[in-house]
TrEMBL record:
Cleavable signal peptide: 1-19
Pfam family, one: DUF6807
Source organism of the structure: Botrimarina mediterranea
Alphabetically ordered keywords of this record: Signal
Protein name: Methane oxygenase PmoA
InterPro entries, A to Z: DUF6807
Amino acid sequence: MLLRRLLLCIMMASIGKVAVGDVATGDNSADSTSTPAISIESTPTGKRVSIDDQLFAEYLTDTGRQPAVWPIHGPSGQAMTRSWPLGPQQPSEEVDHPHHESLWFSHGGVNGHDFWAVAKGEPKTHIVHKKFVRSEVLDNAATIETANDWNAGGETIITDTRRLTFGLLGDAADSPRYIDFQIKLNASEGPATFADTKEGSFGIRVSGPLTVDNKLGGKIRNSRGETDGKAWGRPAEWVDYGGPLTATSEADQPTGGVVIMCHPESFRPVPRWHVRTYGLFAANPFGGDKDFPKGEPAQGAVTLDEDETLTLNYRVVFYDGDVAADKIQKWFDAFANAEAN
């Protein structure tokens, strides 16, 4: 019996996962000073992911409209996404577009139903969290997988499974942090059409100080070299939204940013980008010439047959400091060379 218990302990250590009660945490006992510990803890509203017991991000199962990730803290602990409407309005934040809920996925036209904006009439749309499929820490990265129903007026239109993986791009606690986001959209209830509209799809609303419009130094740039308003509606492999992280004019104020990357194995791996100078930041693989600038490679509405699945894969990187475009490209190359699963 003693030998079996010893073997079991060795096996658990080898896979790098320890589950204690309702908390899953990576086993870093071999070198706790050099490798930050990532953990997941259940909360009344979802799952909380921490690094060395400091909050990184929280997965919320229901904002009243959909699942979302909020708050999200960068390597220095600064907020990376807008607080309002999920939390109190912060300095330099605008109170607009209440459907921009930190980090989320939705779309403005699914079989004629608007899941993007706050519904102005009936039927009410709601992406409903059904269950957690799994929640674990493995190889010092935290993974949360969920199943969801897209409902309009109480009727399920499509379903999805989404997998979020939270980790570090280095071995130190102040390394850039990432969230990998994979979503599988399934036409479970019959054919499903995703409309050609700018209103979508994998979105982030950055914190107020980062926005270009606040004129504190925020800047948008993409993999094609386009910046600020010129990046809107254009195709790109990645887009970066960087600048100050606090609403001050001090010379030594902290800086950082958010990058969204699209994996080459994702459906339409070079999407159009609904990225705005006021802080919206979204990869949209469905929006085409209807709303976005004309003359770009073909993209537009997509119809799935019954039970057909469409898979999208993105990585979001949260970093401190000023990062050169070639460094972001190296991050993208590493992500692109990883298997999307």
